[in-house]
Write a structure and sequence with these properties.
single chain, alpha/beta, 8-stranded parallel β-sheet, 12 helices, about 10% strand
């Protein structure tokens, strides 16, 4: 039986950390890793959407992962997203991730060209074969990838014994139940992560083992509180109220002219003193008019943490 306890918990999606010249900063990457460790999260999801992966080179992504692994010192579950536009680059990142000893690799489906499902399966299985001793996580995010994880494609992927989980970012909570039910047939240990941050309570109640989210790192205390309340038999009504506060914070984070991740990094600098840099173009950075919103977001998080944690 596979030990899935390392995946049962809150796993923030890791942010890209840049220096003043817009290059990957090893120092800031390690600082964010240590910060999240102190907050008590289960692990980190490195190199995904929040990590601005599609705007980074293969070398950039290797550098980020190397510094996360170094700073984590084996104390965090590390899932490395290795999907690229080409299978060749994806395989290279998969091999690199396994050489560093990560717990799992993950990937979105191929984007841009609409490929048949057998080609998508081959894309994922090629990555998995390049890291034969490492778990594989399917990342289902149809609203951005343009491709959904259908049940026939899922059944095909379950033939690969290294497929251990789905990071499910589709909006229907029912999908969590379906993937969990099918994945655990015949006694197989299988993990489903809730993806949409705005429905963490719903996803956990439906059976998600944990959550991977792009806003978790800016307010980990609130996310951890929700997880504990739902999974440890706490007051579900309180969990729902915290979720409402979290959702309102997310809506505010999305209301700046700058990209949400630029907003999040600025809020973390205000609240925690962490300077993670800006975002890479074509993502849009903040403008002076965004400052009142940043201050309001920081205040909302402070007040919610004081209220619930």
């Amino acid at each position: 039986m596979k030990d899935i306890t390392k995946y049962q918990g809150i796993i923030p999606a890791f942010y890209a950390c840049y220096d003043e010249q817009g290059e990957v900063s090893p120092e800031r990457t390690q600082a964010l890793t240590r910060h999240l460790m102190k907050k008590g999260v289960k692990g980190v999801y490195v190199g995904g959407s929040s990590g601005e992966c599609i705007y980074q080179s293969v070398a950039d992504r290797k550098l980020v992962l190397e510094n996360v692994v170094e700073a984590a010192e084996g104390k965090l579950t590390i899932i490395a997203h290795v999907g690229c536009n080409s299978t060749r680059d994806s395989v290279e990142l998969a091999k690199h991730a396994e050489s560093l000893g990560v717990d799992a690799i993950a990937s979105i489906p191929p984007i841009y060209f609409k490929l048949p499902e057998y080609a998508i399966a081959a894309y994922w299985n090629d990555m998995s074969a390049a890291a034969p001793n490492t778990d594989f996580v399917i990342y289902n995010i149809p609203q951005l990838a343009g491709v959904a994880l259908t049940m026939p494609l899922f059944w095909e992927m379950l033939k690969n014994p290294k497929v251990a989980a789905v990071k499910n970012s589709s909006m229907p909570v029912q999908d969590i139940q379906m993937f969990k039910d099918e994945g655990t047939r015949n006694g197989r240990e299988f993990v489903v992560f809730n993806g949409p941050d705005e429905q963490l309570v719903s996803g956990l109640v439906m059976g998600a083992d944990g959550g991977i989210g792009g806003t978790y790192a800016v307010m980990p205390e609130l996310i951890l509180k929700i997880f504990d309340l739902v999974k440890q038999g706490g007051d579900i009504n309180v969990a729902r109220q915290i979720q409402y506060d979290v959702d309102n914070i997310i809506y505010a984070l999305c209301s700046t002219k700058g990209n949400m991740y630029a907003t999040i990094k600025a809020v973390m600098k205000l609240r925690e003193g962490l300077d993670l840099g800006g975002v890479r173009k074509p993502l849009y950075d903040l403008v002076p008019e965004d400052m009142p919103i940043l201050e309001q977001c920081a205040k909302m998080i402070d007040e919610a943490v004081a209220k619930w944690c």
